[in-house]
Sequence to fold (290 residues):
Amino acid sequence: MNPKRCAACKYLRRRCPKDCIFSPYFPPSDPDKFSCIHRIYGAGNVSKMLQQLPVQTRAEAVESLSFEARCRVQDPVYGCVGIISLLQTQIQKTQTLLAKTQAEIAVAQTKHSQHTYL
Amino acid sequence: MRGHEPRSSSSCAACKLLKRRCTPTCIFAPHFRSSDQITFAKVHKVFGASNVSKLLSEVPEEQRQETVNSLAYEADVRLKDPVYGCIGAIASLQKKMLELQHDIAVARNRLLAHNAAGGVNNNNSHLLVSPLVDDASQLAAFLDLVPYSDLMLLDGSGLDAYLFDIGQPPFV
Fold:
C-alpha cells in the first residue's frame, strides 16, 4: 500500500489519488481528525461540502468541522451548541452586571454633583 | 374503522424524505414530524440520516429531542455559513463577551474613581469584581480547545443571525 496515503484514504482503506480532496487537510500523522469527522458527518458529506467550497476556504472549513465533530463526540446531546448556549447565558449575565454598574455610576455622579453644589 | 395503526400517510419527515415505510419503532418519528420536512432535510444534508440515527441511538431516549434540536441548529448554521458553521457564531459571541468585559472594567474604574473622589468607602466593590462567568472553568476549557487567535474570525457583524432565541428554555 502507498505509505503516503492521507489519513482519510487510510481510514477508508482505499487508494489515495493525486487529486484526493481530503489529502491537503488530513495528513497521515493525525488519524483521529478524520475518524472523528467521519463519525459525525460521514466521508461522503464532507467530500460534498468541500467540493462546493472555493479551494482557499477548504482548510478553514475542515478545521471548523473538526472542532464541531470533537464537540459532538464529547457531548453527544448538545455538541458545540452547548458552548454557544453557555456564551449567550454569560453575555446576558455580563450585560446585567454592566447595567448595574452603570446605574451605580449614575447614582454616584448624582451624589457627587449634589455634594459639589452644596 | 381501524385503530391508531400508522399508515404510509403518517410517515415521519425522515421516512418521507428517504422514501421508506415508517415503522412504529422508527427512531426519527418522535422528533421529525411529517409537517416539518425542512428540518430533517437540513439535518440529513449536513450529517446524513444514518449518522443521525446512530447519534440518537447512543443517547438516552429522554435526551433525544434536545439532541435533535442541537443537530438542527448546527445544520442550519452550517448551511448558512459553509466555511465556519457554528465556529463563526462562537467567535462572534466570544468577541461580544470580550467587549463586555472591557466595558465592565472601564465602568468599574469610573465607579471606583467616583467613590474615591467622594471619599466613599465602597463596600459593594466586591460586586464589581467579576467572576464575569460563573462557569469559568467550562469557558477556560473551551478556550484551551480553541486558541483565542483562531476565534477572531468575524468582525462581529451579523451576530443576531447566530443567536438562539434564549427566551426559549436554554439547551444547558
About this structure: Chain A touches chain B through 51 residues (CB under 8 Å).
